[in-house]
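ok so i was messing around last nite and threw this chain in just to see what happens. nothing serious, just curious
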Amino acid sequence: MKAVRYIGAGRPPEIVDLPRPAPGPGQVLVRIAGAGVCHSDLHVLDHGLGPLGPFTLGHENAGWIEALGAGAAGWKEGDAVAVYGPWGCGACRTCQASAENYCEHHASIPMMGGGLGSDGGMAEYMIVPSPRLLVPLGRLDPAKAAPLSDAALTPYHAIKAALPWLTPDATVVVIGIGGLGHMAVQILRALSSSRIIAGDIDGAKLAHARALGVAHTIDTRDPERAAEEIRALVGERGVTVALDFVGAQPTLDLCSSIVGRASRIAIVGLGGGTLHYAQGSPPFGCEVSMPYWGSRTELMEVIALAGQGLIHVETEVFPLEDALDVYQRLREGRIKGRAVLRP
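result:
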C-alpha cells in the first residue's frame, strides 16, 4: 500500500510502498477514507518528535473497519468510524475519564498517537491499537468527516471549557480562521449567543468567516490597529474570551491587550510566541489556558453536531499521491478550510 512517511526532522515526507498491516490481538484494522492535513504535521516535519521515526503521517483519520484482531469487540467489519487521535495509557484517571489528551503517563509513552510517532492514516490502511479509540460516524461521509477528529475537536474542547464566560452579552474573538478557526466560529454559533469577532491576516479567510455568519471581521496584519478596532466594538468591558489559533507573538500580544477583567485567553496555536505577564497585564481576573486536543466523549459530541448539520468542515480533497504538493500549499496558506488526502 502507498503511505506518506515522516523520515526525519527537516526532511520532506516520502511516499513509499508498505505491506498491508494485519491487526494483532485487541487491535483494529481501519480502511482509510480520508486523512486530514494539519499544521501540526509541519511542526513534526520541521522539528521532529524527539527520537521517534520513521512513521506514517496523518492524525486526523476516518474510514471503515476492515478487520478485527482477536479479542477486539464492540464493532463489526464495515462500520464507519473516526479515529480518536491522542493515544494515552488507557488506564490512568484522565484516560478512564476519556481524556487521553491529558494522559498522566504521556511522558513515558513512546508516541503521541497515530501519525504522531505511531503509524497514522495517510495510507490505505491503519492499525488502531484498541477499539476504545474509535468513535462511530453514523451517516457522515468518512472522507469529509476525518478532520472532525482534530480540526473540530480541538476548538470544541477549548470552547466548551470557556462556556461559563460565553454569555449573551459577551464578546469572543477568534484569531486565525484556518483549519481550526473556521470550525471554531461554527461551534461558537452552535453553542452560544455571544458576539463573535474573527481576526486574520488573510482577506480570503476573513471572507470565509463572513460566509459562515460572523458579522465582525478584523484584519490583524497591524496588531495595534486591530486592537483599536476591537476596543471600539467592545467598549470598556473588553473581550471576554480570546481564542488564539495562531499562537505567534503578535497574536498573543493582541489577545492580552483586548481582553477585559474576568476574562479568558485560550492559546491553541503553536506559533512559538510567549504570553508576557505583568501586574494588570493581562487584566485582573483573566484566566489563561493551553488546551490540547479533546476527549473521546467530546469527539462524540462534535460528531453529533456535524450529524445535525450544525457544523461542517470545509474540505479540499486530494489524492494521497499529491501529499508533498498539499503540504507546500499548506505552508503557503493556499488551503481553504482543511485539506484531506484520500487513498
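not much to say yet. Residues 10 and 46 are 5 Å apart (CA to CA).
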